[in-house]
Amino acid sequence: MTPVDLTPEAAAYVRQRGGALTLRHSPRHGCCGGTVALPLAEAVAPRDAPGYSRREIDTGAGPVLLFTAPGLSAHEGPIRIGLDRLLGLAALYVETGASS
């Protein structure tokens, strides 16, 4: 099982939105027809939850329910989820062992 770590800010953001966190692939398309599936974190439960693995993460300030898409549960290296803020907007970001 892939270790997943949330920053305190990301954990608080997820808990404020109901406590569910979905980690799934998001396809990104290149200019020459190539595609890569990057991990994406969303502070919602997935629509098709039966296909996802489910586990609770203790964040120190309360639990977060993590739903992981098939294929991401065997991801190599740790996954870290943080929160970016800009002009009152907030978005979760994902760092993987491959992106460090």
C-alpha-based Rg, rounded:
14 Å
CATH architecture: Sandwich
Instruction: Estimate what percentage of residues fall within beta strands.
Output: over 45%
User: What is the CATH class name?
Assistant: Mainly Beta
Report the total helices: 1
Order of helices and strands: EHEEEEEE
CATH topology: Hypothetical Protein Aq_1857, Chain: A
* Spatial order of the strands forming the largest sheet: 3-2-5-4
Molecular structure report:
By secondary structure, the protein is mostly beta strands. It has one domain: Hypothetical Protein Aq_1857, Chain: A. 9% of the residues lie in helices and 49% in strands. The protein has one helix and seven strands. The strands form two sheets. It has a four-stranded mixed beta sheet with strand order 3-2-5-4. A hairpin with a 4-residue loop joins strand 4 and strand 5. It starts with a strand and ends with a strand. The mean pLDDT is 85.
Which characteristics define this entry?
1 helix; 4-stranded mixed β-sheet; Hypothetical Protein Aq_1857, Chain: A; mainly beta; 100 residues; 3-stranded mixed β-sheet
